Amino acid sequence: MIDRSDTTWWQRAIFYQIYPRSFQDSNADGVGDLRGIMARLDYLTGLGVDALWISPFFRSPMLDAGYDIADYRDVDPMFGTMADFGELLAAAHERGIRVVIDLVVNHSSDQHPWFESARSSIDDPRHDWYIWQPMTGTRPPNNWVSLFEHRSAWYPNEATGEWYLATFTRHQPEFNWRNPELRQAIYDIARFWLDAGVDGFRMDVATAYFKDSQFRSNPFSWNLNPNLFQHHRYDRNQPEVHAVFREFRAIADSYGDRVLIGETHGQDAALAASCHGDNDDELHMAFNFDFLRSPWGARPFMDSARRWYRALPAGAWPNFTLSNHDQKRHHWRYRAGSDTEARARVAATLLLGLRGTPFLYYGEELGMDCQRLPRACLRDPLGRSTWPLSFGRDPERTPMQWDDSPYAGFSVTMPWLPVNDDYRRKNVATQEANHGSLLAWYKALIALRKAEPAMQSGNIAWIEAPADVMAWTRTLGARHIDVVLNFGARARTIHLAGGSISLGTRADAGSSIAAGYYRLAPYEVLIIAEEDV
Ligand code: NOJ
């Protein structure tokens, strides 16, 4: 059962992102669904996660995999019903697992009734709920680009003689957050789900809600990917968004124990940091995507973590993530032949050992990979528009690998995306039976993080380390936990304070090591506990 008086649960929690279409199919249609998630709650409890972030399952034409919502208050039949969601929520809460859902309110689907009426006439009461510019010729009003269609983000609307703005696909018209009624309508959606008992929101491209009020063109930038040769100064990340964050926060706070997690639309830690507000009155957390783009290595990860800690305002709580549904899985990004699995253990320890809430992406605990998909299999609009230069985001969205039966135990029929070729070898059942598996490593790390309050909320201080090694101490009261990671394929020597080994890839848990020099094997991970006397 969850504790509703616990307002900071999200600081201690281990989050697990579920892409519902790919987690578990319960009705043999090849598509994952809410009842499928329910059927796998025991697995999630066994893994030790405390909170789920479930990607969109709302009514949608699925032209951007559910990030194009046509009814914010209903479940898409592909995923089940509202009653299924209620049961899932209750069953998760029963096990003490919180549930955070996606709030996609930078844009709706073009099939949302609001847009259908807004586009019908300038006099429609909802016309101003979306962003329009008059059509005075064939040239769009400025140079803003569609990230998924690689063309102008302005699309003509014949009925009103205007352009509407859509910076993802053309089917995702953007809301006008400057309109007070639209704002209230969105807050009502938020209240609807909070009243239903959800534990918070992951807010899709939250920093993009506002665009420049004068619609100025973006300046040129040499950055092609992902910026499409533009510095996005005017089409996202405007200061007006902070007032909206404060309004959202007041709503969340009125429910006591709910969390707001913003997805930022930009790359730097400073942008993510700014979403917290200087007075802890905006979002509880905002994703910093630095790790998703970091090269492998102790130095880049350490620099990134330090930048993030420095950027956050006093009192704000960090978070870390290595993989999600928009980026190639880190197992693939950091592949290194026979060293790949050793690297996965280092990466997992990084994520679960740092100070900050960890976000796991389904299947990373198995070392799920990305593989090339034939053009005919691609579903992601981004992949379809960029193939063969890129495969889009389908490779990181393939079905969860549960066992070695056909379709990996995900479904009994051909899934919506092909199962990865390695599923017979790499799946939950096989790894649960093997104490030395990556899944077992994740479980051990998660169990340790839960057993050691210092790992959850302790301070962090860096330990001086040789090249390729990243090491730090988490401290709470008299308890110190040293986390030592060798990112390299060469042995390294480090000076350690000594203590009792809690977990290690080579050393035995329970044994102790004396203060002094310790020789770390390639990719060795060591976690040592010590207590002041
Ligand atoms: C960010 C989401 O994570 C991504 O999957 C989606 O395509 C865009 N926002 C548009 O909603």
Walk me through this protein's architecture.
- This protein is an alpha/beta fold and 533 residues long.
- It has 15 helices and 21 strands.
- The strands form five sheets. It has an eight-stranded parallel beta sheet.
- Strand 10, helix 8 (269-274) and strand 11 (285-286) form a beta-alpha-beta unit.
- Helix 6 (180-196) packs parallel to helix 7 (241-254) and helix 11 packs parallel to helix 14.
- The longest helix is centred in the middle third of the chain and has 17 residues, at 180-196.
- The protein binds 1-deoxynojirimycin.
- Residues 64, 67, 104, 168, 204-205, 263, 325-326 line the site of 1-deoxynojirimycin.
- 1-deoxynojirimycin is lined by residues 64, 67, 104, 168, 204-205, 263, 325-326.
Please give the number of β-strands: 21
Low-pLDDT residue intervals, each spanning 5 or more residues = none
In this entry the ligands are: 1-deoxynojirimycin
Q: Characterize the quaternary organization of these chains.
A: single chain
